[in-house]
Specification:
The longest helix has 18 residues. The chain contains three helices and seven strands. It has one domain: Phage tail protein-like (STM4215-like), CATH 3.30.2000. By secondary structure, the chain is an alpha+beta fold. Strands 1, 2, 3, 4, 5, 6 and 7 form a seven-stranded mixed beta sheet that branches.
């Protein structure tokens, strides 16, 4: 088992900072609560959030009476853009977000944080959130781990 079950977070933040130019700031979970209502002030920005685990079923996912098993950590990266030029329909915000989303996905999908991890895989994300010129686009990834 990993010494720190949430150790993927700093690696994800560093990867986004280095591979997604145009994102002004990348926040982690601890910062999210303090900037939630103000995130659009930092836009375009990203927030890396641990979103729980999925435990695959079947005996193939478990060994040693359950002491070791496959776990799929779910990480959601929220890309937040704000462009009030065409605030009513969000066209300007979407035009800004599209290239950033492409860079974000290219930076993380299939990427391996370190030898302790398996590659990240995209998974179904929540719906985007829309609010007066700002759009919060979620991109979700599964991180397969083997606990022991």
């Amino acid at each position: 088992m990993l010494a720190n079950y949430l150790e993927a977070e700093p690696g994800l933040i560093a990867r986004i900072e280095s591979q997604v130019p145009g994102v002004r700031k990348v926040f982690g979970m601890a910062e999210l609560a303090s900037i939630r209502d103000r995130a659009v002030q930092f836009a375009p920005c990203a927030c890396v959030v641990y979103d729980g685990d999925t435990i695959p079923g079947g005996d193939g996912a478990r060994a040693g009476n359950g002491a070791a098993q496959v776990v799929l950590q779910r990480w959601v990266v929220w890309l937040i853009v704000r462009n009030v030029r065409d605030g009513a329909d969000g066209a300007a915000a979407r035009a800004e977000a599209g290239p950033l989303l492409s860079l974000l996905i290219a930076a993380l999908a299939g990427w391996t944080l370190s030898a302790s991890f398996r590659p990240l895989r995209r998974t179904t994300a929540p719906r985007p959130l829309f609010e007066q010129g700002a759009i919060h686009f979620p991109v979700a990834f599964e991180l397969p781990l083997i606990t022991a």
